[in-house]
Specification:
The chain has 21 helices and 17 strands. It has helices at 3-17, 22-30, 36-43, 103-119, 138-154, 174-177, 196-203, 209-213, 215-220, 232-243, 270-273, 284-291, 336-351, 369-373, 376-389, 404-409, 433-440, 442-447, 451-466, 470-474, 487-498, and strands at 50-52, 75-82, 85-92, 123-127, 160-164, 167-169, 181-185, 190-192, 227-229, 298-300, 308-315, 318-325, 356-362, 394-403, 419-422, 427-429, 480-481. Helix 5 (138-154) links the parallel strand 4 (123-127) and strand 5. The longest helix has 17 residues, at 103-119.
Length: 515
């Protein structure tokens, strides 16, 4: 090999490393954003990145594009490691043609997606793009299609994580939407199908970019995003933390951590966390944090559908998925958004071999015309479908209320759960005492001289009979009523027994989950 050849290689590499040039890099920094290469350096273990496709360029000459050919074509792709575990990563480069999506840009990502799927490693996408490159016409659109198809084929096989580091508009938003987790950066990242100008032209509504598709909107209202980061460093750190709870692929187990919290630890504080009064709120996260390994709880979608809590944690070092009703918000009722949030999380855990622990305290599904007309029936059915479909170990603990259809949906024995436990404070009934009494004793109350007093007597009798876990335990629907202090050791013992669980669903092409 000649010196000239080596010099040419070095020159081309240095050219590629410049991205869109010093001016555009400076502009990126002025916007408070890192470059694609800086992001990769912060994300991966030092020295682990192996770049692929560095010299790829677009092949379009129309509209003067023959004078705008950059090495890499606005996306950096390659292999690397996070905490010593292999990952695939791509980062769109906004300094090159606004990170716009093209045929060759797509080909680089699709090639990486295929490699990640074949190798069985997580794939991480750092999104920062102005959208499809208009000059390429259908070539870019076809590229989106090829990318989306890989997202779908990889779903449930390898973890797919999307970081929104800047804008994402039009068809490009479906790439992150098809992945398992979406992380957005406050005040920096946006996602929308049609921008504010189009919205105003079509509907007359005036809205800013941030109001239409900013990080807060998708974390609090739409549910598109799963995590909110204050800045880019926080977003990249979130990826590293999240991967610590996920396996490399669906044939692997999640990473086992050393357990510094004794498996036999009993927690006296649990005796007082759930108020004795039915309608008094409390923060269920305090219960969860008292039960799991100390400091291990990672909440997913903390700002969306706050009447439900989902997240990852560890029990004796093993990863578990937590699902709980949140009495501190809307009394812990189930509604459309909470149903979607819970069902999606169940399926993620089931796909990646993560046992499910469900903590129940809900008065039922949220009543109302808007909920009914918006499809609470089909959305609520998603929870049932997801629990029944899931073959990982499933354990439920009823803390207080478990009413009506919500009792059934929230990992009851009939949802093929492996173990159903209850605290002595558990209340399992078709509906609340007052409502039940007004239906069951309608005639008696109508004829009574003092209906209020009679109703109070009926309510008290109903509570004594049904507002406890013992009728359900007598019938075998509850496996055991436990002292709250024993919750952690009992769950750890049960999980150890169920770790070798093998369950197969009936063979089929796929089920038809309610949508």
């Amino acid at each position: 090999m000649t010196d000239h050849q080596l010099a040419k290689l070095q020159r081309l590499k240095e050219e590629a490393l410049q991205g869109g040039g010093e001016a555009r890099v400076a502009r990126q920094h002025e916007l408070g954003k890192w470059t694609a290469r800086e992001r990769i350096d912060h994300l991966l273990d030092a020295g682990s990145f192996q770049e692929l496709g560095m010299f790829v360029k677009h092949q379009i000459a129309d509209f003067g594009m023959d004078k705008k050919r950059y090495a890499g074509d606005a996306v950096i792709t390659g292999l690397g490691a996070i905490a010593g575990r292999q990952v695939a990563v791509y980062a769109q480069d906004f300094t090159v043609l606004g990170g716009s999506f093209s045929q060759m840009h797509a080909r680089k990502i699709v090639t990486l997606q295929d490699m990640a799927l074949e190798a069985g490693v997580p794939i991480i996408g750092l999104m920062d793009s102005g959208g499809a490159r208009i000059q390429e016409g259908i070539r870019g659109l076809a590229g989106y299609g090829a990318m989306f198809s890989r997202n779908v084929l990889s779903s449930g096989v390898i973890p797919q994580i999307s970081l929104m580091m800047g804008p994402s508009a039009g068809g490009s938003v479906y790439a992150p939407a098809l992945t398992d987790f979406v992380i957005m950066v406050k005040d920096t990242s946006t996602m929308f199908l049609t921008g504010p100008d189009v919205v105003e032209a079509v509907t007359g509504e005036q809205v800013s970019t941030e109001e239409l598709g900013g990080a807060m909107v998708h974390n609090t209202r739409s549910g598109v995003a799963h995590f909110l980061a204050a800045d880019e460093a926080g977003a990249l750190a979130m990826v590293r933390l999240l991967l610590d709870y996920l396996p490399q692929n669906n044939t692997d187990d999640p990473p086992l951590a050393s357990a510094n919290d004794p498996a036999t630890r009993q927690e006296p504080a649990l005796l007082h966390m759930v108020p004795a009064t039915d309608d008094q709120p409390y923060d269920v996260k305090q219960v969860l944090q008292a039960v799991v390994d100390q400091g291990s709880f990672l909440q997913v979608q903390p700002y969306f559908a706050r009447n439900a809590v989902v997240g990852f944690a560890r029990m004796a070092g093993h990863v578990v998925g937590l699902i709980a009703n949140q009495p501190a918000f809307l009394a812990g009722v189930l509604d459309i958004d909470a149903s979607d949030k819970i069902a999606h999380f169940i399926r993620i855990c089931d796909a990646f071999n993560i046992p499910l622990l469900t903590f129940v305290d809900t008065p039922g599904f949220l009543p109302g015309v808007n909920q009914e007309h918006s499809g609470v029936i089909r959305h609520g059915a998603k929870i049932i479908y997801a629990y029944v479909e899931a073959t990982v170990p499933k354990i439920s603990v009823i803390l207080r209320k478990a009413m009506g259809g919500a009792y059934i949906a929230m990992s009851s024995r009939e949802m093929r759960s492996d173990l159903a436990l209850a605290w002595p404070s558990a209340q399992i009934a078709v509906m609340g005492a007052e409502g039940a009494v007004r239906i069951l004793h309608r005639r008696d109350l109508a004829q009574a001289e003092d209906p209020a007093r009679l109703e109070a007597d009926f309510v008290q009798a109903y509570r004594e009979k049904f507002f406890n876990p013992y009728v359900a335990a007598e019938l075998g629907f509850i496996d055991d009523v436990i002292d709250p202090r024993e919750t952690r050791p009992r769950l750890i013992k049960a999980l150890a027994f169920l770790r070798s669980k093998v369950q197969q669903n009936p063979p089929k092409k796929h089920g038809l989950m309610p949508v």
